[in-house]
């Protein structure tokens, strides 16, 4: 449970993401199980929260070469926490659906602040 405790500490210290949400820059969409927002703004907030980029990849559509999605990963050198953001672009939106994880815990929305939740389909759960 040390990883879960570290993840909870990390999310409490994520003022950049909290501020972005408070400004309306990212919104939790329960039916999508993800955040709607501009990926660059979310990545910038994660960087502001102490995560140094170590990976960024983009995917494109074969038809029109527009960005179809991407992935970003960062490490907080002070805490050792790892944050990931995976997004899927929507052709008619300026924003994307973004899935955020910190130390393997999904960042989900609630009424007040983002919270971390273990993925029920993850490696240590599910079918055996």
- Give unreliable regions as ranges: none
Number of strands: 8
Average pLDDT figure: 80
- Largest sheet data: 8 strands, antiparallel
> Helix coverage percent of residues?
10-25%
Principal-axes geometry comes out as globular
How many individual helices?
Answer: 3
Beta-sheet strand percentage? 35-45%
- Characterize the quaternary organization of these chains: single chain
Number of discrete domains: 1
What's the end-to-end separation, in Å? 21 Å
Order of helix and strand elements from N to C terminus: HHEEHEEEEEE
From the alpha carbons, calculate the radius of gyration and give it in angstroms.
Answer: 15 Å
Helix-and-strand structural type: alpha+beta
For this entry, give a set of tags:
eight-stranded antiparallel β-sheet, 3 helices, 128 residues, 8 strands, alpha+beta
Task: Describe this entry's structure for a reader.
- There is one protein chain.
- The protein has 128 residues and is α+β, with helices and mostly antiparallel strands.
- The chain has one domain (2-117).
- Helices cover 23% and strands 38% of the residues.
- It is built from three helices and eight strands; from the N terminus they run H-H-E-E-H-E-E-E-E-E-E.
- The protein has helices at residues 2-12, 15-22, 39-48, and strands at 26-29, 34-37, 52-60, 67-75, 82-89, 96-102, 105-108, 115-118.
- Strands 1, 2, 3, 4, 5, 6, 7 and 8 form an eight-stranded antiparallel beta sheet that branches.
- A hairpin with a 6-residue loop joins strand 3 and strand 4.
- Helix 2 packs antiparallel against helix 3.
- The protein is globular and about 40 Å long.
- The two termini are 21 Å apart.
- The mean pLDDT is 80.
